[in-house]
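Slide 14.
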Amino acid sequence: MNIALILAAGVDPRFQLNVPKQFVNVYNRPVIVYTLEAFQKHNEIDAIAVVCLNGWQEMVKAYAKQFNITKMKWVVTGGADGQSSARIGVNALKEECGLGDIIVLHDAIRPLVSEEIITDSIRVCRKYGNGIAAIRTMDNIMRTEDGRTGRESISRDHIVRIQTPQAYRIDKLMELHDKAVEAGIKGGMDTSVVASRLGESIYFSQGSELNLKINTVEDVEMFKALYNMRQIGD
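Slide 15: predicted structure.
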């Protein structure tokens, strides 16, 4: 069984609208619904769980009913950061899943994830135990301490940008989060950060520049433009 675990518990105080990013309305549906629909339509996804911002649980259930997200089986309240929310989600699912099942973690604020990206994450996970969407960077990279100046250039040949989805076998995912607790690793933005800090190898699957993460109001406008381009293409 393959279960999508949608991470929708974040609040960004820098986001300049009066609702959290994942619930911003775009063309009469919230961002999270576009994300849920991508996994609802995917023929390898058997069920969906949402780790939700406290106070929005019933709204997510209402969205699922309104937009016919029939694969959504669980809604749980998230934690203070991506790492703790993922751990909460895994703990909620472990009684429902077999140890060989695959959990596909995905940010609710990446609503343009494609069928191909989801498929490749699962494929790589089946082969290696994890499959993490990633893309090469075309920009030059420089290390900075203060955000204003830099002295050390880093070869872009040695850099990838990590995205979601991130697929793991559930037994490995449980092990990673248990080891992180034992090692005092906290505050990881996503599970790949936790895994790498524990010395685990990360296996890259297909990502895309179009797999937009909505972080700013400008990103909402970019999402609209990309969504409209996709509609024309279809």
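Speaker note: The mean pLDDT is 91.
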